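User: My collaborator sent over this chain with a note saying "see what the structure looks like." That's all I know about it. Can you take a look?
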Amino acid sequence: MRYSILAGLGTLLLMSGSSHAHFELLEPSASLVQDRLDDPQKLAPCGGTSANPGTSTNIVNQVRGGDMLHVKLRETIFHPGHYRIALARSAAELPPDPEVTTRDTPKGPWSVSAKIADTKPPILADGLFAHTQKAAADTFWETDVRVPNINCDNCILQLVQFMSEHGHNKDGDYSYHHCAVMRITANPALPTDKAWLKP
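Assistant: Without extra context I'll predict from the sequence alone. Here is the result:
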């Protein structure tokens, strides 16, 4: 998997001085309105919280099967960890949050690591942008993932941020979430990606 990180590879983002919430999905366009804190993003599979399910942007991103999709995000609060990208025909078919190893502390469980999933449906990429330190302010993280060659009017692209060295969140466990709605039109010149079709 190829990925580039503008303003430096490897270690990542410094908080910008004001309070922000973890990460902002910039490309493709997110399915929920992200406020000035980049919220709501705790609940799986696509964000929201118990108190605020979020407001739909009603944006459908148009993509062609077999093409490379550019994904761009900005981490606005530093947490060691990594990111995962998944794609499914509905939110209900997205995978569960990463399997997390924890350690016990006087304040409850604390995340240590998460299993990196194999790159097979519904996972497009995992272990992205792995980091343990802050990077320069206003660092954008970017990668390209290949879109399966299928027809899908309302597929859901999911980005999950796994946070290590983090306490348990009531809504988000040890992960934060953003999604984007994708309308995929298959390229007739390419073979269909049968592994991505419904059984």
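A starting point for your reply to your collaborator: The radius of gyration is 16 Å.
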